[in-house]
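Worked example 3. Consider a protein that binds NDP.
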Amino acid sequence: MTLIAIIGDPIAHSLSPAMQNAVFRKMNLPYLYLPIRVTPGELPSFIKRIKNDRSGITGFNVTIPHKEKVMKCLDWISPEARAIGAVNTVIFKKGRLMGYNTDGRGYLRSLQEKTHFTPRRKRILILGAGGAARAILYALKNAGAKKIYVSNRTLRRATKLTRDSIPLKAKELEKIFPSIDLLINATSIGLKGTRFKNLPLSLLSKRVIVSDLIYRPLMTPLLRDAKRRGFKIHPGLGMLLYQGAESFRLWTGKKPDLAVMRKALLDALERNQ
Ligand code: NDP
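Given these inputs, the predicted complex is written out as structure tokens:
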């Protein structure tokens, strides 16, 4: 049996074990995917154990709070993960730890499958400037977007990512809302049903797609408001699915059964809610 892990702190509520184990089982692959709580202080010793080959782990996912810190511990980092500044997938092969980032690709694939949106020549606004925002900014830029604004509560973090940075204030957002083709929430607002206070949604054009990275709940208050106004919406579960599918492909070299993964995610969400 080959072991794959997901490390983070906290980790108990991760949906990835259900998703990956379901597809390993369905495809008769001898893999087991385990959630392991690794606190920030424990990260170096966890990595050391893997490198000493004592754990039996041949790959792992990385989630909050280790996506950036883990980079220092790896032997090789893909150009994509390096540009994003975060790693979410690691392979251990021939004594070397290799890091990748599948979040940006996962987002793009999900967006295209669900909405048929092509970023080329489009104007996009990302709310948030954390790790997830950086991954999708990189993916959308590479896919040929014409303009990508980043708006964040802490403006300094957005300014680090782009010159097109904007304070997360209604007055500022009002200036660009009418011109954008895609609005993406990459902040934590929406988790557990929390909502934005001052988004000028009435100024968005009819063609806009409203996308939310949050998947718990599946329909965030932002997506509900957008749907009510008749906009096309893109929920966050697809990104979780496709980043996982891409990690699966890196570990196994095979294409996963996406329907099995999607169903496992939905079932796990229902159980956890
Ligand atoms: P980070 O902690 O790196 O970034 C959090 C972001 O949210 C920052 O921009 C932060 O702004 C902003 N924020 C937090 N609280 C508030 C608030 N009260 N008001 C305004 N802004 C706020 O997290 P990630 O980038 O990793 O994740 C962001 C979201 O994306 C999470 O909710 C996560 O669930 C979701 N996600 C979904 C994935 C998927 O597969 N669907 C994958 C990864 C993430 P500031 O800089 O000012 O603190």
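Take a moment to read the result before moving on. The chain has two domains: 2-101+238-271, 104-235. Residues 108 and 147 are 16 Å apart (CA to CA).
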